[in-house]
Amino acid sequence: MKDVNGLDIPTFDDVIAAQDRIRPYIHRTPILTSSFLNEMAGCEMFFKCENFQKAGAFKVRGATNAVFGLSDEMAARGVATHSSGNHALSLSYAAGRRGIPCHVVMPRAAPQAKKDAVRGYGGIITECEPSTTSREEVFARVEAETGADFVHPYNDPRVIAGQGTCSLEFMEQMEEHGAPVEMMVAPIGGGGMISGTCLTLSHIAPKVQIIAAEPEQADDAARSFRAGHIIADDAPVTVADGLKVPLKERTWHFVSNHVTDILTASEQEIIDAMRLTWARMKIVMEPSCAVPLAVILRNRDVFAGKRVGVVVTGGNVDLDKLPWMQG
Amino acid sequence: MKDVNGLDIPTFDDVIAAQDRIRPYIHRTPILTSSFLNEMAGCEMFFKCENFQKAGAFKVRGATNAVFGLSDEMAARGVATHSSGNHALSLSYAAGRRGIPCHVVMPRAAPQAKKDAVRGYGGIITECEPSTTSREEVFARVEAETGADFVHPYNDPRVIAGQGTCSLEFMEQMEEHGAPVEMMVAPIGGGGMISGTCLTLSHIAPKVQIIAAEPEQADDAARSFRAGHIIADDAPVTVADGLKVPLKERTWHFVSNHVTDILTASEQEIIDAMRLTWARMKIVMEPSCAVPLAVILRNRDVFAGKRVGVVVTGGNVDLDKLPWMQG
């Protein structure tokens, strides 16, 4: 950890420590390739399949690093977060593996399936009203009553260091695939995965270009990148529901210092790319994970002839409601 | 190859030769595990993901072995088959890699998507009427006119030897997973995959029990197994549409000599297992591939506490028509 203008920013040593710490609890996910998609895109893509990860998403890396980095005394009081997505599942999973409580504050109106999933991993849900005020009030009460350690979904140095293990593992695995990659593409929402990618690659492979992929309809990171400061949108609407949250100061540190570019794709392009991946690669991935492929297909010139790593971030999707079946 | 009562039966040497021959053209597919499904089933399962295979199914192993085993002179005349399923795709793929024609006889009424898929891999379709007589007539004509080599979907020693490379590769990969498996489960239709599995395992791991998994509604192999001779059903109806075809003499040789048991599952159990795998393992698999898991969940006592290999045979499925969304 280092101090950058008063912020605790993780270093590559933290990524190495995280890799050792979380190894017993996570999958070493495979890299898949598709010559059909390569031909279509005009580049050679290597998909790091974190949709096969424990709890169904890369987020388990950061959550597990946070949970297993706690002292026994701290751990005994548990961990807490507010999220209704993959971070809540991941933190519940990690806490369960350590045998400590995980408190999750979720809106009363969140889908039953999401509540069931969190409870399925052992998370303890406290409901709030669907406003930021209520969420913050309820969360503060849970924190005060339990003494649980708050693990933010992305603006937490332990989480960013944990996400950094993904590209570390990827680069190790690429040794079996001939030459290394020249570019790495990952979706960007709050920026946890991209920050971990920046942290690792800027250290071990600084020439690799890092491209963040974002829905056109939730392009706050792209606009922030061009403006030179964080722009946060209020409730953007996109099928890529994992990517609606804004950058925060720690992820902005990495995005502003290490990302090569942020490219966007339309809703239809995202849905088409999602369906294409299901059909040709036979993997179940979330809409958010399809954004990198959508961006690559839209910007063929940027990626032409390159070896490109693609992070498939998660596979938690409602199988009864697939986006190409709606409307 | 050896002669058994006048039949050309492949030997383990043919599997080794096949592995070398097809290596440049196929994927070394990963093994995935799911602690959730293990807990549910009460055994430890290792899923060999042939749904990620080239052309989307294990069938490319046998087809590629047949195509690349041809002399240049034979190859120049091409290959031919009658199938509207994964074998047609696989043979078209393999022929395309060798740069030779692949003739596929298909019913005029076959779904457009299947025709498009075969053509997408370079297959040349000749249409027939939806009767066995018409199919045989048309096929004989195509064979006579082209001199193409007939590659049967499963009752062909080259195909069986090719499918045998799947468990060979699986057993090699299991060295990274601690102990080897004690049981191996694969779906059974015509018996090509099961025969290849028997061929390989009876040679390198004869103690491994081989369980064939079949839909209750297309249980001709199970009934054949108990009767001691081939029973062929006429047009069984099951969601597992890859498993409707009957055993033939070469696959019966392996099934009758090496299979430990054939277990069945109901249509609903197959659909439930399919959905469960999509939801928890994040992989797109065909209904046929879900039959092994369905059988394991139905017969927990048979598999209790065991290490079990499961062949996920293919992932070619209509994404607009998922069985849990119908009726």
From TrEMBL, chains A, B:
Keyword set includes Methyltransferase: no
Tryptophan synthase beta chain-like PALP domain residues: 22-314
Organism for this UniProt entry: Jannaschia pohangensis
Annotated transmembrane regions: none
Protein name, entry field: Threonine dehydratase
Molecular function terms, GO-annotated: ATP binding; L-serine ammonia-lyase activity; magnesium ion binding; pyridoxal phosphate binding; serine racemase activity; threonine racemase activity
InterPro entries tied to this protein: BHydaspDhtse (IPR054856), TrpB-like_PALP (IPR001926), TrpB-like_PALP_sf (IPR036052)
One BP term from GO: D-serine biosynthetic process
Pfam families: PALP
NCBIfam families attached to this UniProt entry: BHydaspDhtseBhcB
Keywords: Lyase, Pyridoxal phosphate
Needed co-factor(s): pyridoxal 5'-phosphate
